[in-house]
Amino acid sequence: MNWYLEVLRKYTVFTGRSRRKEYWYYFLINFLIITALLIIDDMLGTLDPEAGMGLLSGLYALAVLLPGLAVAVRRLHDTGRTGWWVLIALIPIVGPIILIFFLIQESVDGANQYGPNPKAANKDDVV
């Protein structure tokens, strides 16, 4: 849960680097919250099956859009890529697959043009 809260604290920070652990824990908790909100939306009758969203899940998705984008950009920085690569997800079918491939790659060892390696700073919780 700390990784999720850390991303929310840095919701407009598009500089620096983020570890895989930070990105994927944020992604997992986001997925669980969205799933729970979709179930609640369905029970309340506010779920729109065509849109695949309801009132609560839509508001939540809008609220975490900027933090999610920021952590994805920082994750790309950690792999040595510019944050603009996040736009590749707009290409149908192939784009999201390429972006996921970039997001699961190992960090660049040592410092790069985006800052020091965050994994080196946290040797005590390396996975």
TrEMBL record:
Q: Which domain of life is it from?
A: Bacteria
Q: What Pfam families does UniProt report for this protein, alphabetically?
A: DUF805 (PF05656)
Q: Name one GO cellular component term.
A: plasma membrane
The entry's keywords: Membrane, Transmembrane, Transmembrane helix
Q: Which residues cross the membrane?
A: 23-40, 52-72, 84-104
> Know the name of this protein?
DUF805 domain-containing protein
Identify the species of origin. Answer: Halochromatium salexigens (Chromatium salexigens)
